[in-house]
Specification:
Largest sheet: 3 strands, antiparallel
CATH superfamily of the largest domain: Winged helix-like DNA-binding domain superfamily/Winged helix DNA-binding domain
Strand order of the largest sheet: 1-3-2
Mean pLDDT: 86
Oligomer: single chain
Radius of gyration: 20 Å
CATH architecture of the largest domain: Orthogonal Bundle
Strand content: 5-15%
Length: 173
């Protein structure tokens, strides 16, 4: 990334940061994620990984930084891996794992939601057929189905626009 693009994206090139300042950011951003529905410990682990310069930390690093147990790290990482926000990587020549976020994690997470939307649509179609399209419940399900169909149709275009915008801002495809 060029210096101008880093500045435009609001990034600092100063790599020395006060751990207390980083901790405040991690806890603040984690609180925002919790408010949006993410469980507390995965939110804290995700925010810590996001704030790490290389986007990766070991279990021990996470435990030390967040003052949590190895079991808490493990549970949080399991959740984050299931929702495609982090991946596990072995440290070369070691049995230790590092957990990493990727620069395109939001794109990946949202891209994977398309499968969920399709399953929900299938279930809603079945619900409309089962309850009857002419019932109040059937009409409510049909409206929900129409909403998810609309979201799905807009989703592909939205993700494509993001790919173009990301390339403009960060030079990564």
């Amino acid at each position: 990334m060029t210096d101008a693009k880093a500045d435009e994206a609001g990034m600092s090139r100063d790599m020395s940061r006060d751990p207390e300042v980083v901790s405040r950011f991690v806890e603040h951003f984690a609180a925002q994620l919790v408010e949006a529905g993410m469980p507390r410990m995965p939110a804290r682990v995700f925010a810590a990984l996001l704030a790490a310069d290389d986007g990766a930390l070991s279990s021990a690093d996470l435990g030390e930084q967040l003052k949590i147990s190895p079991a808490a790290v493990s549970g949080a990482v399991r959740y984050l891996a299931q929702v495609h926000l982090v991946s596990r990587q072995r440290e070369p020549g070691s049995r230790r794992e590092r957990y990493q976020v990727h620069s395109d994690q939001w794109y990946e997470v949202l891209g994977n939601r398309e499968l969920i939307l399709k399953r929900w649509q299938d279930a809603l179609r079945e619900g409309v057929a089962t309850l009857g399209a002419d019932t109040r419940a059937g009409r409510r399900l049909a409206e929900t189905l129409a909403f998810f169909q609309f979201v799905e149709s807009e989703f592909s275009e939205l993700l494509e626009r993001w790919r173009v915008r990301r390339e403009e801002l960060f030079g990564e495809g």
